[in-house]
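Human:
Care to share another protein and its fold?

Assistant:
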Amino acid sequence: MARLSELLAQYPVGSKWFATMQDGDIQIPVVVRDLRQTFGRLDVLIAPVGGTGETWVEATKLGPSMKKEGSADESLEVEIPSI
């Protein structure tokens, strides 16, 4: 298992990821707002790139699909459809 310092470096505040929800059926683009260690695991405070709100999730819920060559992709743009 990775050390806490390695995990903190992997999920820098402000980095963008996909959060996987509902057993992988839904992926939501999110930005990392904060980190905390709870009961030996790393939790990440995330907020959607488009939308409102924030929630704590286990770091394992963040997918690397937005990562390029070991760093977060800062160029993610999300188009919000009008209703």
User: Anything to note?
Assistant: The longest strand covers residues 26-38.
